[in-house]
Amino acid sequence: MTNSKSFSFEFFPPQTQEGANKLAATRKQLAVLKPAFFSVTFGAGGSTRERTLEAVQQIKADGYEAAPHLSCVGSTRENIRAILHTYKNMGIKRIVALRGDLPSGMATSGEFHYANELVSFTRAETGEHFHIEVAAYPEFHPQAKSPRDDLLNFKRKVMAGANSAITQYFYSADGYFRFIEECRKMGVTLPIVPGIMPIMKFSQLARFSDACGAEIPRSIRKILESYGDDTESVQSFGLDVVTQLCERLLAGGAPGLHFYTLNQSAPSLEIWKRLGL
Ligand code: FAD
């Protein structure tokens, strides 16, 4: 029923051999689901440049599609050019182009200021070689001057040559559908795949959400808070919430799902099973 939809999983590059072994196992378990691609994040300020490349090489070596993330922060034209050509020569066909965030202590963002500049540069350097994914924010980017401005800035990235978008995670399907409607009204027609964050640990989720501006609705937050250290209840409730969200998104026409796995397979596998995909 969902064959035409795009399902993908996101990893972060591991720091240790133990982390790398764990990620290899996670990848193997998720590969059974035949995702469109596995993406690999790019650490704040370019801090994982080498490790992102290594993780991407491993995914390719196992025979799967890999989509490295690339960010403006901490990058120069020269090193972005080099990495684009490295990826192109490796047979990578898809990248996720981002602005990134300034890590504390880093004063300037680098030679590119916004993701639209990175998208334009990638097109100028490599033509139509890459399928370019960009980030979208149904609840708006925390630094946006206004929702309208954010939408116009999103359109700017699309006009620069993006092929599709992946959203920041959210727990309100209505917000996503409203965002899609606004995009369509502006003539932005590319696929916008919801980013899905399974709920595993409330304190971690709250920390991420504070940092990136993703809203945890009060009706969900209050219940999660009430479970305290009872991880089993948090996860069981979290699975119900996220499965229902995915069901609504897919039924309402979302073009796929992109799972923020945090390098774990179990939550995504369970949601997948419950969705009957
Ligand atoms: P942009 O699209 O450049 O937007 C950033 C802000 O600037 C917005 O407020 C926007 O409204 C405004 N803006 C955009 N263009 C202009 C313009 N031309 N003029 C004026 N204002 C403008 N971060 C990482 O460090 N590494 C990762 O691997 C990573 N992966 C991510 C994957 C996904 C799917 C998502 C949703 C986010 C990811 N992030 C990652 C986080 C992301 O880098 C941050 O959210 C960052 O703050 C914004 O990046 P962006 O590409 O959306 O920026």
Automatic annotation (TrEMBL):
Its cofactor is FAD. The keyword Transmembrane helix does not apply. Keywords: Amino-acid biosynthesis, FAD, Flavoprotein, Methionine biosynthesis, NAD, Oxidoreductase. SUPFAM superfamilies: FAD-linked oxidoreductase. Pathway: One-carbon metabolism; tetrahydrofolate interconversion; Amino-acid biosynthesis; L-methionine biosynthesis via de novo pathway. One of its GO terms (molecular function) is methylenetetrahydrofolate reductase [NAD(P)H] activity. The keyword Ligase does not apply. It is an enzyme of class 1 (oxidoreductase). It catalyses: (6S)-5-methyl-5,6,7,8-tetrahydrofolate + NAD(+) = (6R)-5,10-methylene-5,6,7,8-tetrahydrofolate + NADH + H(+). Pfam families: MTHFR. Its EC number is 1.5.1.54. Gene3D superfamilies: 3.20.20.220. It comes from the Bacteria. Belongs to the methylenetetrahydrofolate reductase family. This is Methylenetetrahydrofolate reductase. It comes from Candidatus Nitrotoga arctica. The gene is metF.
